[in-house]
Amino acid sequence: MSKILIIAEHDGRELNLSTAKVASCALELSAASTDIVVFGNACADVAEAAAGIEGISRVLLAERAENAAPLAAILAPQIARLADDYDYVLAPSTTFGKDVLPRAAALAGCGQISDIMAVLGARQFKRPIYAGNAIVTVEVPEGCKVFGTVRVASYKAAPGAATQAPIEAIELDVELPAHTRFIELQSGSGDRPDLQTARRVVSGGRGVGSAENFRIIFSLADKLGAAVGASRAAVDAGFVPNDMQVGQTGKIIAPELYIAFGISGAIQHLTGIKDAGTIVAVNKDPEAPIFEVADIGLVGDLFEVIPELDKALGG
Amino acid sequence: MQKILVCLKRVVDYNVRIRVKPDGSGVVTDGVKMSINPFDEIALEEALRIRERGDAEEVIVLSIGNSDWQQQLRTGLAMGADRAILVETPEPVQPLAAARVIRAIVEREQPELVILGKQAIDDDCNQTGQMLAALWDRPQATFASKVELQDGKARVTREVDAGLELIEVELPAVITTDLRLNEPRYVKLPDIMKAKKKPLERLPVAELGVDVEPACRESNFEAPAARSRGIMVSDVNELVAALRDRGLLD
Ligand SMILES: Cc1cc2nc3c(=O)[nH]c(=O)nc-3n(C[C@H](O)[C@H](O)[C@H](O)COP(=O)(O)OP(=O)(O)OC[C@H]3O[C@@H](n4cnc5c(N)ncnc54)[C@H](O)[C@@H]3O)c2cc1C
Prior knowledge:
The structure holds two protein chains of two kinds.
Chain A: E1 3-7, H1 18-27, E2 33-40, H2 44-51, E3 58-63, H3 72-83, E4 88-92, H4 95-107, E5 113-116, E6 118-121, E7 124-129, E8 134-139, E9 146-150, E10 167-169, E11 180-187, E12 200-204, H5 214-224, E13 227-230, H6 232-236, E14 257-261, H7 267-270, E15 278-283, E16 296-299, H8 302-312
Parallel strand pairs in A: 1-2, 1-4, 2-3, 3-10, 4-9, 5-9, 12-13, 12-14, 14-15, 15-16
Antiparallel strand pairs in A: 6-7, 7-8
Helix pairs in contact in A: 3-4, 5-8
Chain B: E1 3-7, E2 10-12, E3 34-36, H1 38-52, E4 58-65, H2 70-79, E5 83-88, H3 95-109, E6 113-117, H4 128-136, E7 140-150, E8 153-160, E9 163-170, E10 173-177, H5 189-195, E11 200-204, E12 217-222, E13 231-233, H6 236-245
Helix pairs in contact in B: 2-5, 3-4
Flavin-adenine dinucleotide (FAD) sits between chains A (205-207, 231-234, 245-250, 262-264, 266, 268-269, 272, 282-285, 288, 301-303) and B (14, 38, 121, 179).
């Protein structure tokens, strides 16, 4: 029977929800055991949260000063060492997982599967290619470990467990490089709801016109308790920070409700919202491609629609 | 620094609507426009700007593929690269194999910087740069939106889910590019003529003695489940009613 190792994602204080989504994918592999490793420094709370996820056998807590920032060059050799004892090493397909896991896989002499969206068998998976315009089945040959990142929009978070899994502190005797230094993280969107986990998302595109105009998107989002997203054009034009970009090269999200204002619906954008429950599009161009995928479409000027919507929603 | 190595992948142009072959053996590429992967074009642009600032002597472009790939290398030379290397393989290689080939070329050329796109828009893998950095045992700065070089180090701003992360890496290093790093230049006709005279070396992959076997088998290409067109509403009241009907408003 096989053993799975999941690399936890966290910010030093809180476990990222993507970890529980990877755990959900792991459940489909019916392995003998599933462990989560938490790399960090003074992050016992994160380990506690990981230990509370359904289906987890053990949490390994690898604390050392070097692990304070999630640097791939630091974490990958530790993951590669741990991988000796496992058949699968999984991480979320977030910028964290995408950065660190290929480096760990290569150190272990293995390939990696990116963006697992479905498990077909012990070594067979489905993944999207061409910005989600095709799906391919990939199979890892016998005798190789499976390193994979999990497309978080394809999985619901695994539920909480009835009993906490045990937490074991580990020390890995691995020499770490000094060639890479973390300096700082500038967070763009502050304490707004998290785009990747929000139930509702309100997004703006080039049609919004300016950073100033984006204020009406934010206020509508506040009214709906929604996170705010954007197209690449809106980010490139400097209306909003990069962490709001939705799409092939931004975030892949699956909210219950996605409302797009002034977004044309380029394939690179649509690939980021394919798994949304209901897509609403407001665009003044009746020919905009976004209407081809929208569940509810409204042809109109966003500067008229948003104030009316505000009023209709009360307040 | 002396040299920057830039890796270019030939991919279906980003404007092409992808169609899966009816027999599920792949996507249609016959008669389809092929281009340099957009992220790799940004990688090359960055390298050229570094050279033009006087911070590098030479920019080398590298591809791994069949003889058709010379086209994209010629475009790279026309953009301004000094010379090109085509490692010839009959089929495109997977990321680990690509990383091994690039590692072998790095051994030979000894660049101080290797710049690649963060992902190719065909397989969307986002692995090769990270794997190269692992095999080379050097730093990686992925998803770069700003690169500053100083005193044998690179300060790189990375686009991460939480915002912008700033890291510092010692050279030699691997950088992978995000879209906002720069806007690649257009190639002018005289540059295309000049590029024809620039050296393009063709190297059979067997001469490098690296394992390029695929790490996983691919089969059964399918079109994704399509979302169907929904309803159109004519005003905000209808919109709100439709949302309430679906239980999407509290
Ligand atoms: C390799 C690559 C990767 C990419 N990755 C991404 C990605 O991750 N995410 C992404 O979003 N894009 C991505 N793109 C870019 C993508 O191709 C499009 O250029 C981009 O999504 C367009 O953004 P937009 O819809 O806001 O702008 P536009 O296409 O310019 O559309 C603006 C829309 O606003 C409408 N409009 C204007 N004014 C109003 C108004 N007052 N009221 C209502 N509607 C109005 C217009 O009718 C139009 O439809 C990528 C491109 C490439 C090449």
